[in-house]
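Researcher: Here's a chain I'd like modeled. Treat it as a single chain, no partners, no ligands.
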Amino acid sequence: MGNLMNCPQCGKLFIKNLRDNCDVCYREEEKQYDDVYKFIRRSENRNATLLDVSEGTKVPESKIIQFIHQGRIRVKGFPNFSYPCDGCQKPINDGRLCEECKNRIKSDLSIEDFIKKKAEEALPSYHTDDH
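Model: Modeled as a single isolated chain. Structure tokens:
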């Protein structure tokens, strides 16, 4: 059985089982998703921006970005649709990070791995002679 919680969107009590919000908010979120999905799938909206979609559907930009991050909506093939990179806020249209942020993270990880390896190599070793 789930835990009794307050819905993060409306504050009402609900039993958290499979979802993180109450049934009313869940249904509203699904309606918003359907509205966004239908809007961007229409051929006349293929060149829409994030702002165009938000204004056309009355769904907040943050909710549309949430759908993208959840993998429910894909906008890679939409030439004018972009949303902010999680790292630097630069406009992107695929994933959560721009290439620069991905490369910076990879570089940071490589440097950390290198430093850790060198630190382990520098640890003193002891030789014992068991006669």
